[in-house]
Amino acid sequence: MILRFSFVALLFSFTGSLLARPFLLVSLPDEEHLAVYEINSRTGELTHLRNQNTESDPGPMSISRDGKTLFVSLRTKGGLASYAINNKTSDLKLLSTIKADQDPAYHWQDHTGKWLITAYYHRGRVSVHPVDELGRLNEKASFFGDTALNAHGVAATKNNRFVYIPHTGPNQVFQFSFDDQNGQLTLLENGVLQSADYTGPRHLATHPGKPWLYGDYEQGNKAVFYEIRPDGLLTTKQVLSTVPDDWPERQGATARMTLSADGRFMYVANRGHNSLACFKINQQTGQLSLVGIYPTEPNPRSFVISPCGKWVYAGGQDSGKIAIFHRNRRTGVLVRENTVETGKRPWWLQIID
Q: Cα separation of 75 and 77, whole Å?
């Protein structure tokens, strides 16, 4: 009887996970809303469900550690908003809207779930806002800066001790220690990593299991691999091109980059060349090797990998369309399957799982 009950419970849990529906959100700043799509995990198809109005032009989005809260940048308003997520229906309920600073370009919730760290492109500084247990943002934040112009990303070590902020303008990565008890950032000694002219560190992502950090050089059309030292400082280990060798130097720019959930592959969006570059990560050394470069819609500012790892969605900012790719989870290779029209200038793509 106990065995039968356990089997039924396991079957129910497995079936429930199969029936879980991930959703894709698309920031459409010109129309001041988020387009909400249901993802068919089996076929990769997108079904438009509705549009979620926002108070101002929405930009970058991120999801809380517990998956219950969506954070949205309100770019020209200089604000941040948080929404409660209904994971079964994708419904979003506004929890808080706060005044922050000009053009919040990227945000990330720390591993404790108590703080939202935000980089500001035009002001070149960083904020740490408290987040309560309901997902509401507190306007009383700590601001750190001015760091430098064009702060564009946030990444941190898995132990929450160190935070990294890339800046595309001065070609620098600021390296901080982080006190997650009081939300304070402190610049490390010799904590500004300088890269060459016309590189432009833009986004960063931490490997899930190793002391490795990966990023992209915006102006340089490059992928970069850093090693994280025990003291939190970064050592640049490798730089590779994200575009073919015959592509004109400094034409176009990279945009979003991300790692696959298993840390085996890195993907970078190439604006101008209009493609996604895929790199395999050597799990022993951290070194990158090019897998392939795959055409997208024009000006792919943002893209995401589905929770099952089987699909990639890349927005074309200039075409108002999303390219859908089948992704081989073993090799990282992408095959274009479909194209879906969305609104004008899809700015950021985010998945609710």
A: 5
Residue 195's closest CA among 175, 164, 217?
Answer: 217
Residue written as tokens 């010109």? 30
Sign of the torsion angle spanned by Cα atoms 293, 104, 211, 113: negative
Q: What is the value of pTM for the model shown?
A: 0.93
For residue 67, give every residue at least 6 positions away whose Cβ sits within 8 Å of its Cβ, in sequence order, or none. 85, 87, 352, 353
Cα angle 240-245-246, degrees, rounded to a multiple of 5:
155
Place of tokens 């089987």: 310
In order, the DSSP letters of 296-344 are -SSS---EEE-TTSSEEEEEETTTTEEEEEEE-TTT--EEEEEEEE-SS
pLDDT digits (tens, 9 = 90+) for 97-116: 999 998 999 999 999 999 99
pLDDT reading at 86 higher than 90: yes
Q: How far apart are CA 177 and CA 263, in angstroms?
A: 24
- Residue-level pLDDT at 19: 53
**Alpha-carbon distances of 13 from 10, 40, 42, 277, 292, rounded to whole Å:** 5, 19, 18, 36, 37
DSSP state of 30: G
DSSP 42: T
Residues 6+ positions from 88 with CB-CB distance below 8 Å: 21
Average pLDDT over all residues of the chain: 93
Long-range contacts of 1-8 (CB under 8 A, 24+ apart): none
Using the structure block, give the residue that is written with the tokens 């002391």: 211
DSSP state of 209: S
Residue identified by tokens 């039924």 is: 8
> Quick check: helix, strand or coil at residue 169?
coil
Q: Do residues 256 and 27 touch, judged by C-beta distance below 8 A?
A: no
Q: What percentage of residues in the chain have a pLDDT greater than 90?
A: 88
